[in-house]
Amino acid sequence: MEIYIHIPFCVRKCGYCDFLSFPCGEEMRGRYCRSLIEEIKRTAEAIGSQTADAKRTAEALRKSETNCPGTGQAVETVFFGGGTPSLLAPDQITAVMTCIRSEFSLNEDAEISLEANPGTMDEARLYSWRENGINRLSIGLQSTRDDLLKTLGRIHSFQDFSRNYQLARRAGFDNINIDIMSALPGQTLSDYCDTLKVVTDFCPEHISSYSLIIEEGTPLSRDKRLLDLLPDEETDRKMYEKTKEVLGKKGYGRYEISNYALAGKECRHNRGYWEGVPYLGFGLGAFSYFGHARFSNGTDIHRYLERPYLPFRERADYEEQTREQEMEDRMIFGLRMMKGVSRTKFAEEFGLDLETLYGRQIRKFQEMGLLEISGDRIRLTDAGIDVSNRVFEEFLLEASGQTW
Ligand code: SF4
Prior knowledge:
Layout: E1 2-7, H1 26-53, H2 55-64, E2 74-82, H3 90-103, E3 105-116, H4 123-131, E4 136-142, H5 146-152, H6 158-170, E5 176-182, H7 189-201, E6 206-211, H8 224-228, H9 233-249, E7 253-256, E8 259-261, H10 268-275, E9 279-282, E10 287-290, E11 293-296, H11 301-306, E12 319-320, H12 323-336, E13 341-342, H13 343-350, H14 354-367, E14 371-374, E15 377-380, H15 382-386, H16 388-393
Parallel strand pairs: 1-2, 1-9, 2-3, 3-4, 4-5, 5-6
Antiparallel strand pairs: 6-8, 7-8, 10-11, 11-12, 13-15, 14-15
Helix pairs in contact: 1-2, 1-3, 3-4, 7-9
Bound molecules: iron/sulfur cluster.
Iron/sulfur cluster binds at residues 10, 13-14, 17, 19, 21, 82-84, 117, 140.
């Protein structure tokens, strides 16, 4: 199983951001970390007792090989996301990691990632993270041009990134992701190509590239001047094509729509989400998929601080997943990955052949050149990836009128 920890705090809100994040003072951060620890402990306790007497959870644990103190099985990945996890003081991360280690049995080779903002990194933090077993950093650079970083409302400069990247290498991080963005207001194709070049010159193990999406309600969505500076659709498309071309030439394999990695350096945590590995999310707004149910912690910080742990079934959005929902998820999330979905694994999990379930869709998209079957795997072609959302819609069993 996997663990996700949400840290919803940022120095200030970026103009394009609609993630669950906000600025806050030190006192609130301290209270939040204490709540996180309480939530982790009580969840571990609850799972331990549930496995003894709740048949359904026990069955889920057996099937998914999830870890809980009662079963002694292992946690494969931990991911500190946000927000800005690097904003926490080193001893706060230490306290959370110590709690996870004492409540769950963490695999010796677990991937432990932390999202870091170049404006909140320093030597002391980097060394402390390494001491705590954090072995993968995901650094939000977004652009190498300072004027674009300013436009986005980022708190850091390119130089901050460059300095902290070198420090991270010196502290021993040998697995680093750099996040970049395309289609920014005022960004030209040549700016974006420069960003690709500079970023690959740093030789990170992993690069994620996302096209800016204007989210309703964000300051950017109301800024007419900046909206007028957005690149047109054709330039946006060319940036997308350049990402594939440049990163491919530099040895970065594309393994998911927006994610590229050197061989063997794909993000195990995210791959787990796409492959249907169960996960527990801790912290404000964090989602979980556990015991064949989905649920979250809600977004009310005051409620969370007062009562960080709620039994799973009492969460407002608790929803047990039907077999149809899980089959859809396995197919749609699986197709996000370039390697696609394994027919054998699907049949083992659901006792049903993928081609029996989705024969019509598979034939249709094969004929359109959007999907291919290669050995055990069904996957999207490059052309299919480009229109993936349209393809995914047709794999919704309810929409297609199929039930099983
Ligand atoms: S640093 Fe990330 S999470 Fe925080 S406001 Fe900016 S985009 Fe949002």
